[in-house]
Amino acid sequence: MGLFVFLPLVLPLTAWPMARLAEQHLHPRTATRLLTGVAAVMALCSTVCLALVMVVGTAQLPGNPLPDGWSDPQVRAAVPYDEVVGKAAIPALCAVVVASARALWRHGRVRRRAHRALAGLPGTSVAVLPDDVPYAYALPGGRRDRVVVTTALLDRLDPAERRALFAHERAHLSARHHRFLLAVRLAALANPFLRPLRTAVSFTAERWADEEAARAVGSRRTVATAIGKAALVSRGTPVATLAGLAAPGPVPRRVAALLGPAPAARTWPSVFTSVGLAAWAAAFGTAVSAMSSANSAVTMFLILRAATPL
Amino acid sequence: MLSALREAEGPATAGWVQERLGGDLAYTTVITILTRLLDKGAVTRERSGRSFAWTPASDQAGLAARKMRKVLDAESDREAVLASFVTGLGPDDERLLRELLGDSRDDGEA
Asked: What are the distances in angstroms from CA B95 to CA A210, A247, B87, B90?
């Protein structure tokens, strides 16, 4: 398998142009699905390859529980630079596993605690909390999906803007956006090169909900003003960015997108545009990633089977 | 008794209510009244240790709000789970946002 085993570790780089271009040039629904799919496949392939390299690394360690045959020179020859990368893969894979387990556990814990906090309220789909901190979010929970919003935020919005807010949060819930967000979060933990895809998906998921809300209330401008007002009243929590490098944040970009024309619901961009090229590059990277990890897995399986005395 | 409960920060025990009301009522009387209020739906209770903690029903929303704030303050990466309506604004975002919204308002009036 040679160097092929390392390809899935760096191929996420081929998805960077798409992570950058998709949010402006694709419908947010297409962009979210495409980017999440690419991130999930690439993360899986990268983890498989990391595990394969780790097997080679572990077999060299004294006192390992693996069959003796696995430390044969033939097996080690399957992975180039096996001495270094084999050992480096052990902590790397452990870190991936621990970080993913922790992320999953925290995800469950936040949802459980939030549901428990609302347990005393009547089981309506919207929970209005009397609080002077303005916030609103969608709390997924299977049949107990809820929109949580505080009076402080509702008081600042017109009736039409409130409808936009509820439509936005309901869109998050009905399209199960939390699953996309969790998938890209885990992917970004599995391979740090996938982080730009996570950032892109958190943005496109918001845009997706914005577009759904605009369709539901029939006015793009109402959704834009609702987002703008909500952001201005809750500006007490600034995001930490270096002032010199600050590009416009997600909120102004969402508002600007809503004030512009509705995005076309094309499913796959033409190859003759920059985003089309980027999408094909990402698709190509994903395919190569899948093939190299499959190839490496099969090769490693055959070598190990040959090396294991039965 | 309800007003005494409302003065409590969060759920209160029957003993606390008795103390608050100032002596004349026996502990069992307090429990009886609280149980009657529970039947009427004016209060709710939840088990805490060996006794119950009582909350006025009208305060359920406020209680939920306080609990939710506690959850949100405790979770540093809650954004990863709860897709909130808006995220924080960067240094230049506020000015940009006001410009955008100002423009849209002008368009609306034109």
From this structure: 21, 13, 16, 10
